[in-house]
Amino acid sequence: MSRQHDPFGALRGELTAAAEAFAGQETLAGILRGLVDDIDRAVTEPLEIFPVCHHSPASATAMARRLRDKQPAVIYLELCEDLAPLLAELRQCRLPVAVQAFASGIDGFPKEWAPLSVVAPVTEASAEYQAIAYALDTPGVDLVLVDRSCDHAFQWDARTTTEAGTGDDGLHGDAVGVEIGDLRPRFAELEEHLLRNGKVRHWSEWWHQYVEVPLGDADHDTYRQVMVMIGSLFRRLAPGDPRRVTVDEDRERYMWTRMREHLAATGTDPADGLYVCGAFHAASRVPEFGVDGSDTFKISPRTATTWQYGLIPSSHTAIEAQFCLEPGSVSIAAATWSGNLRRTGVKPFRLSGQAGPSKNPPKPNGSSLPVPLSPCTPAPDRLSGFLRRPPVLDTLDEAELLGWSVEIVRAARRNGYLASTADAIAVFETSILLAGMRDRAKPTPYDFGDAAVTCIEKDAVPGRRDVRRLVEIMMGGDRIGKVGYDALPPLARDVHDRLAPLDLKLQRRGVQRCLLDVASSPELGPCSDLLWKLKYLLPQGAARPIMGSKALGDPPPIQESWDLALGTHQRSLIELGYEGVSVEQVLEQRLRRLSWDPSATTAAVLGAVEDAHLYLGSRRLAGELGARALDVLSRERDVGGAPDVLRRARRLLTYYRTSEPALPAWIESFVKAGYAHYCTLLPVAFADEDAGVREVAAMLGFLFSMENLALSLGCARTQLELAVAQSHPEEPAKIALLWAARTQLGVLSRADLRERCDSVLGNPLSVATYPKYLSGLLHALEPVPSLTDFVVEAVSNAFARLPDPVLLPWLPTLISTLRSGGAELAPLLIKEAGRVFPARLAALDEWVPPWDASAPGPSVAPAVPARSGGVPLLAAHPETCDALEALLA
Questions:
Q1: pLDDT at residue number 254
Q2: Within its chain, how far is the Cα of 86 from the centroid?
Q3: H-type helices in 329-420, by residue range?
Q4: Full-prediction pTM beyond 0.85?
Q5: Which residues, including other chains, have CB under 8 Å from residue 602's CB and lie 6 or more apart?
Q6: Dist. CA 340–CA 348, nearest whole Å
Q7: Could you give the residue ranges of the DSSP H alpha helices within 566-664?
Q8: 851 CB neighbour count, 10 Å cutoff
Q9: pLDDT tens digits, residue range 748-777?
């Protein structure tokens, strides 16, 4: 464009003169001239560029107005191009929702990145939703997404790009967020300067006060020029990070390449199109800028990663957490959007058939807006007038502020505050006072929130919600979206169909209680099975059993009670659908993935075998997983999982013996290999300081409890005898455990065991370690349960023989040792003590311990009622039991 027709010539000269007034700052003059050049370049582009900011009501209002005025034939939208097929499903949802791309199995990216997830939240008060609704409901209009694909986003290191952020909110999780138009200073000093001079606390408040409010009523040309100016300013003052600049410019080259390809393929006139992008990219300076730019940018191919696409529910809180916005800012934006519609009379676009109340704005209040010029006419300089014009106080603001004041007092009284009409007046006046102190033409929602806290909350919060939270709720609250049934993946729809007999509204948020009377309604049996599978697959709280249990070998349920919150956990259910088409398929895939994970342990794989029987009833899958458990066991050199291996192997053996005609081949091989494996590791475990007494006891428990089966399969008992003979522990607990193992093998008699314990107890130098010996003996009850009476004897001897000065300081150590080392086996000890000791206190003085045969005086029968005359005789001569045990050993 020639200078004599340059509409921004006067502004360019004025800014240059202003820069020279600052002591000849040539750098500043270059920046100011560059701002005008960027605006001139953007507004004269044949393809109209519409700059936006994400979740901006001013952008949404301007977009709705421009779409009705221009009615473009094609809309190019800055959004990942592979998300396009999902946009039509938005009409089945209640906003806000997020368009998601998900990849669990990745190929071409670092393994630690898995799973990959990209979300693009959509709210009604956003320019992109207005463009989508217009394009999908207007015949003959093309909607083309031109931004890089989700795969390219990760190729270009999406975890550090400007348009991507991560949040920890429950609805979005750790997904990478994609926004259309991220406008925030990348220069920290610039943001700090704007907040300090704007007398605001955070960026959301600054943007609302100095951009949203002035542009809410602006005409199209003014809006475009101001937004491009802001994008150009932030871009020129951004730190010179070469990698970030390269990613930004590559994205712009990517988008312009896609737009030129579409224009060439369809023959569309650029004047009939509309390019919706962030204001940051509208001020681009890449050589490929514009439809007449270079077409040399080469787009790299995608990786082999398989992506799944769907819609997940979103919320205002999730969006704020995802993109580091101030809490409540998205709710305030939604309230501002409603106010803009009422004030301007702009009719928004809304997808036909979408859930939610329709918005029918009233007629405009009489203020006429300038009609936008045609694309062929150069846009006049609206920016100069906008920058010079002082803010105008809207007369409707006073009525709106008064309504807010009355409403917040009503909400405060409902939540326990002693608020009155005087407080409403105080909030109203304080809001105006704070706005004046902050040099604002009218109070903003942030001023109103500060005033409400000052006047109502004072120094105490009587209920669960403070006043600031009440203000957020009054402004619209945390709206949570919902994905409709028809937009759900096949797995989620299948879950809803299979749970239909429960007659519950499963898409409703919150917890719903359901009672399954399976005995009287057998058709509820499949629902029970599905709920147990969902409990296994979904996060805690999605399906929680209140009454009922499910374990190997249990009979079919009679009644169950469940708390269901599938609507609250809709996102998790949807992401489950990315892994398969049925719950059973996903469950099998997860069990296989867990078992074949390189870090899988033998106990974890045995747990997968148990789950395969419990949830799927699949002998085939259980056999494959069992063979995998045998393979993992053969390569495992750590004994840390021995307790879990013992517990799961015993449970599986019990299940097979009670429900199968013969043991599966894999469990026989597992017992045989486990017997040899633990015999090999036993001497090392006894000597290893990192192997605890509980783990060594579990190894002995496996060897002794599986011995009969192992010997029948061809194992030799000599392996175990040699392993015990080669064990030389140094820790007191392991020494006592070895004594118990030798007693079980018949190498050490009970008399020798009793003598060794007495020697430790009678030696003043070793009595301090006696609790550790007791801990070892207590754990020995796992492999040698016949020693229960001897452990009772050992503990009783300690209390009987130790003097009080030694006993009392030692008791805390004894109790802590028993609690930490033998919590699972203590019930066996208590049961045996109850059998041995007298049942009445009066009989305690005459009671003689059955193991103390040399003590004078009569003995008292145990607490168990005598069934024959031989019981007192047996209690008086307990050595006969010892003789029987010696014969059995």
A1: 86
A2: 23
A3: 329-344, 383-388, 396-414
A4: no
A5: 629, 632, 633, 636, 641, 645
A6: 11
A7: 570-577, 583-595, 602-611, 619-635, 642-659
A8: 19
A9: 888 899 889 888 888 888 888 888 888 888
